[in-house]
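Dear colleague,

Thank you for sharing your sequence with our group. We've completed the structure prediction you requested, and as agreed, I am returning the results in plain text so they can be pasted directly into your records. Please verify that the sequence below matches your submission; if there's any discrepancy, let me know and we will rerun it promptly.
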Amino acid sequence: MLLRYLASTGKLLRHKPIPSLARQLSSTHREIPALTKERYPVQRGQFAEVTNGDIAKFESILGGSRVLTQSEDIQGFNIDYLGSVRGYSRVVLKPKSTGEVAEIMRYCNERRLAVCPQGGNTGLVGGSVPVFDEVVLSLQLMDKIEQIDEYSGILVCQAGCVLGTLEEKANEKGLVMPLDLGAKGSCHIGGNVSTNAGGLRLVRYGNLHGSVLGVEAVTAEGRIMDLMSNFKKDNTGYHLKHLFIGSEGTLGIITRLSIFCPTASKSVNVAFLGLESFDAVRSTFLAAKRGLGEILSSCEMIDALSLEASTTHFNLQSPIEKYPFYMLIETSGSNMNHDEEKLTNFLESSMEQGIVLDGTVTNEPTKMRNIWKLRELIADSLINDGYCFKYDISLPLDNFYDIVLAVRDRVGPLATKVTGYGHVGDSNLHLNVSCEKFTPEIYQLLEPFVYEYTSKLRGSVSAEHGIGFLKTKYLKYSKQPESLALMQQMKQMMDPNGILNPYKVLPQA
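Please find the predicted structure tokens below.
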């Protein structure tokens, strides 16, 4: 057993966004996927089709340069990041203000033109691209940061701001974004909030329902809902902002928001550990909760195949030898000596008991970023085999990794690899099945098997990625009929013509 402990630097870690280079590399030489309507059973709704008159109206609202109609300009807006779904929208709109969004929605509602809101298009469940020929409403140009108050810790911005940019600007004020994702170099905060993204810091800061203080949203009928607040305490009736957080653009389009950013920690440490079994992972997590307490900020699990994919595809170097499982543990506090002492005691105890076999720990910023890359680039690396089925599920820790073994047995040689990694700190597993290409054979082996397995353990079929298009018929495995009926009633009330992100979230009739 070997533990390498690097000298303290006293520097504050400021995670730099892992840029969209990873996503560019992953998409190189990938085939254009089949149209969604050809790959999956889905019927187009009774919506109008875009005409030249509609294009002229949109140009009168936005000007010609912000209305895209050329196929080479709009292809990327029609295809999701995974290459799972592809629509055939003929127009992409790029508003700059909430007022423009409202005017567009009023017109589309009158014409019964379906609309697909889109942020950074980094989603993994087909929720951010059109299914058929919906109008794509891109929030790329709504990227203004309006205010960062270092006293209250409140950041106010438009929905199109890139998460990594917000993190950098918050860091400059001594604050930290409560949300951290591998896609932060390209994902938008509006999309994050619309899907209630979880990420790497949830174990410390909780989910976005708690961090987002207020939103401004536009309804399907073009009404502007000003639900903004700059206070953590605002107990004035129904908290309507929660209708939009996690609704994936089906109830309204988030255009602005205010979010609470905690004070950045002065003392940050990252440990990367090698373990023999998942039982050892569970024991280490329990020991970390008890031994690290309030300074524990992230707790990630990576299996051997996931790490191998990341290191091989991106030419990265693991800081320790090969093991069946790895854990990445981050601590954040205010006193370096205190934090190092707690971390050292935790690691020494874990190694003496034989739970942790090897590890490295550092508080040097560059080394910490390099360790985080091993975890953050896994998602991109697994697409390198050609196609990847990705499942984002919550499971009890007692059965957390069993589904990886079950799926591995079930698909056999049809898969290039079956891997599991994720946020063990909040019971969120990312199950990945890589293969040369999408085939009905492997698809039918995986679905609904994965969701039935999850449901039997009373898990969630979507831990943090949302439902989007790909999981609508599986929502029943996590929601009772009474809940689904109420959700349908809410959709009907807020979007009577059903034009907002149709075919998403709710099961189709």
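Summary note from our side: The chain has 19 helices and 17 strands.

Kind regards,
the structure core
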